[in-house]
């Protein structure tokens, strides 16, 4: 009886779950089934399968710290909200119900919070909420004409990395989305990059010492790795990209090159989406840029990776 009661509390919500699939799945969004749904695949390219089966668009999958659940963005009748499901796609729960766009969710390392972006204030700002959707709190307050993208909690849970154009030079027409760091309550905002144009994804290394992110170089997105304080910025891919960029439409940007990276739980590999072989497919690569490997061979477009943490049993 005590165990049943304990499983109803938020503190051990995830501890009382076990993943129905193997450790180490890489999730991504695919339109292979004529709609955009979340799929999973092992690092060696085996056991690819579809996880979500809704008619709506599902994207931006992110794993709970114990690997038992996913949060993701879902579009229903053109409105995007944050949803959560078990690792096999079952027990789908809607966490936000705002009429604005709520997107790109990510778990806190203790499993108690989800950070996401929303334009409910008129521009995209970063918000956080409890895993049941309660206590939705605005964290960034940048001014008109700015955008704030894709918050990611640091592995130690003390800071959030995100992309923003808040410090753009308004006298020029080039738009940059640099990476910033802030405390989890939105305070102490620090700029880590300058004119890097990071729009299509960023992720922490599991030890919290580095980040990988996608930034545009000569009109093609490439992967970069840097230290957590913004130093040591190193380009690790040099893709030529598809000469015909992918334009998914709606609120999504035009994609060309290497995008949406995620770091493996052991820190040894980085998963990402690339159009180096024309259609977007999922690849992995060493953090120093060596040994790239393609792991999907699926028709259509595969984007927006997330790497399952080690499941605690």
Descriptive keywords:
4-stranded antiparallel beta sheet; disordered N terminus; 24 strands; globular; 313 residues; mainly beta; single chain; Neuraminidase
Set out the fold topology:
Layout: H1 2-7, E1 26-30, E2 37-41, E3 49-50, E4 57-63, E5 69-76, E6 79-86, E7 93-94, E8 102-107, E9 113-118, E10 125-130, E11 137-138, E12 148-153, E13 159-164, E14 178-183, E15 190-191, E16 202-204, E17 210-217, E18 220-227, E19 234-235, E20 258-263, E21 270-274, E22 281-285, E23 293-294, E24 302-307
Antiparallel strand pairs: 1-2, 1-24, 2-3, 4-5, 5-6, 6-7, 8-9, 9-10, 10-11, 12-13, 13-14, 14-15, 16-17, 17-18, 18-19, 20-21, 21-22, 22-23
Summary, kept brief:
The chain is mainly β. The chain has one helix and 24 strands.
Q: Overview of this structure, please?
A:
It contains one helix and 24 strands. By secondary structure, the protein is mainly beta. The strands form six sheets. Strands 3-2-1-24 form a four-stranded antiparallel beta sheet, with no helix packed on it. A four-stranded antiparallel beta sheet has the order 4-5-6-7, with no helix packed on it. A hairpin with a 5-residue loop joins strand 16 and strand 17. The protein starts with a helix and ends in a 6-residue tail after the last strand. The N terminus is likely disordered.
């Amino acid at each position: 009886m005590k165990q049943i009661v304990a499983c109803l509390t938020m503190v051990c919500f995830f501890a009382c779950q076990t993943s129905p699939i193997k450790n180490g799945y890489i999730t991504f969004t695919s339109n292979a089934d004529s709609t955009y749904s979340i799929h999973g695949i092992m690092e060696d390219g085996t056991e690819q399968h579809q996880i979500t089966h809704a008619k709506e668009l599902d994207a931006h999958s992110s794993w709970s710290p114990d690997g038992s659940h996913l949060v993701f963005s879902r579009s229903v009748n053109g409105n995007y909200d944050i949803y959560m499901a078990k690792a096999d796609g079952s027990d789908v729960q809607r966490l936000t119900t705002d009429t604005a766009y709520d997107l790109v969710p990510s778990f806190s390392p203790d499993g108690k919070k989800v950070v996401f972006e929303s334009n409910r204030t008129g521009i995209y700002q970063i918000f956080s909420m409890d895993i049941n959707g309660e206590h939705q709190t605005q964290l960034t307050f940048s001014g008109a004409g700015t955008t704030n993208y894709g918050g990611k909690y640091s592995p130690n849970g003390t800071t959030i990395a995100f992309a923003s154009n808040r410090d753009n030079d308004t006298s020029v027409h080039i738009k940059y989305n640099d990476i910033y760091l802030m405390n989890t309550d939105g305070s102490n905002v620090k700029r880590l990059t300058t004119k890097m144009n990071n729009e299509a994804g960023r992720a922490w290394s599991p030890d919290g010492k580095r980040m990988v992110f996608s930034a545009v170089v000569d009109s093609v997105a490439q992967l970069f790795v840097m230290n957590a304080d913004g130093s040591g910025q190193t380009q690790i891919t040099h893709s030529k990209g598809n000469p015909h960029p992918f334009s998914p439409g709606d609120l999504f940007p035009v994609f060309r090159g290497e995008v949406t990276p995620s770091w493996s739980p052991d820190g040894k590999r980085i998963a990402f989406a690339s159009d180096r072989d024309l259609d977007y497919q999922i690849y992995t690569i060493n953090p120093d840029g060596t040994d790239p490997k393609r792991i999907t061979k699926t028709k259509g477009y595969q984007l927006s990776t997330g790497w399952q943490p080690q499941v605690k049993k």
